[in-house]
């Protein structure tokens, strides 16, 4: 059997593929890897230590913060601050972007945007959760505090993005714009080992993932597409299978591997959609496209949207190319509703 290739080794091997080849991005990904191991350790013993449940506070978006939201947020920020590449972080769990003052005179070129714990309402019931990260080169001059324009860049400017899924095994999946690569954590080695090189999303699939509890409030095009998924057309493998975990990372990861489509449309409860453009939609869209899939807000490519505020929400559709094409046909036909 071949020796496993660890994430650290793989990143160094691939370093020259980066558009801005440097060891700095490798080091930054190293910080994320370290924080992921720490969070993974806590999540694995979630039932044994006092880490489950709500903490009694709300984030800026009015959502209850779970203890693990806050724990993961702190650990990822600490790991990123400990090295010299990142000058600031914007997180779903913080009201404002955090500036790492001590890194400002150290040539720090990058900002990170993240959802430190995605699907956190699942943690108390032992269901997969994740971390999502998105990395940009800063626009403002090195050595000065990062500004709003550094954090509000369109997704097409990402230099790297990825997620960690804390599931039946823990995986880290990332892209730097040269394909998508997945690494499974081997707890006996304490290492993420290459298990899924150059991941490709099947061009079509038979899984649709949506919170159907909100069906009645969805736009007509989405309703009609869901009905299409449910129609009995055996030679087209319909009806499709419905699978919805309620952690974007886990739902996307399954559909990435098996082929499928994920839908979080606008609805009367969430007129702008629920998912966050900068922490969730952009990094997942970058991964989707790099794996041959498609990600849009129903009309436009997610990666081309111009962000206007940090915690902005967006309707989000991502998945296999052919399934997304069919969805868009329905959205166009029923666009008036
Ligand atoms: P978070 O835990 O980071 O707030 O994200 C939850 C998101 C996403 O992970 C998931 O797909 C979606 O919310 C689930 O929303 P519903 O419960 O409305 O289906
Ligand atoms: Mn989330
Ligand atoms: Mn979250």
TrEMBL record:
Show the Pfam families listed in the entry: FBPase (PF00316), FBPase_C (PF18913)
* Domain of life of the source: Bacteria
Q: Which residues bind Mg(2+) 2?
A: 115, 118, 280
Recorded source organism is Vibrio albus
Reaction(s) this enzyme catalyzes, per UniProt: beta-D-fructose 1,6-bisphosphate + H2O = beta-D-fructose 6-phosphate + phosphate
Protein name as catalogued: Fructose-1,6-bisphosphatase class 1
Q: What is the protein's major site of localization?
A: cytoplasm
Q: PANTHER family given for it?
A: FRUCTOSE-1,6-BISPHOSPHATASE-RELATED, SEDOHEPTULOSE-1,7-BISPHOSPHATASE, CHLOROPLASTIC
């Amino acid at each position: 059997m071949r020796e496993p290739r660890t994430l650290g080794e793989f990143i160094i091997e691939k370093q020259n593929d980066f558009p801005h080849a440097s060891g700095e991005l490798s080091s930054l990904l190293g910080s994320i890897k370290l924080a992921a191991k720490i969070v993974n350790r806590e999540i694995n013993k979630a039932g044994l230590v006092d880490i489950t449940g709500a903490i009694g506070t709300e984030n800026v978006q009015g959502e209850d913060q779970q203890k693990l939201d806050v724990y993961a947020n702190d650990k990822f920020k600490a790991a990123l601050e400990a090295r010299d590449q990142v000058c600031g972080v914007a997180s779903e769990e913080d009201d404002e972007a955090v500036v790492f003052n001590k890194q400002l005179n150290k040539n720090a070129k990058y900002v990170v945007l993240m959802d430190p714990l995605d699907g956190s309402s699942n943690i108390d019931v032992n269901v997969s959760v994740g971390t999502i990260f998105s990395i940009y080169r800063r626009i403002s001059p090195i050595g000065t505090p990062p500004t709003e324009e550094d954090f509000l860049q369109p997704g097409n400017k990402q230099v790297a993005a990825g997620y960690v899924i804390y599931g039946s095994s823990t995986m880290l999946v990332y892209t730097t714009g040269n394909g998508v690569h997945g690494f499974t954590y081997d707890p006996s080695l304490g290492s993420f080992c290459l298990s899924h090189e150059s991941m490709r999303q099947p061009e079509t699939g038979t899984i649709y993932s949506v919170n159907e509890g909100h069906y009645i409030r969805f736009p007509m095009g989405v309703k009609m597409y869901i009905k299409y998924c449910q129609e009995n057309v055996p030679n087209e493998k319909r009806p499709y299978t419905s699978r919805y975990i309620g952690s974007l990372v886990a739902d996307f990861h399954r559909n990435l591997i098996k082929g499928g489509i994920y839908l979080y449309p606008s609805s009367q409860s969430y007129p702008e959609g629920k998912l966050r453009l900068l922490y969730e939609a952009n990094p997942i869209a970058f991964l989707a496209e790099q794996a041959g899939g498609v990600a849009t807000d129903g009309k436009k490519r997610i990666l081309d949207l111009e962000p206007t505020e940090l915690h902005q929400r967006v309707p989000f559709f991502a998945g296999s190319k052919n399934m997304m094409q069919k969805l868009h046909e329905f959205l166009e036909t029923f666009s008036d509703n």
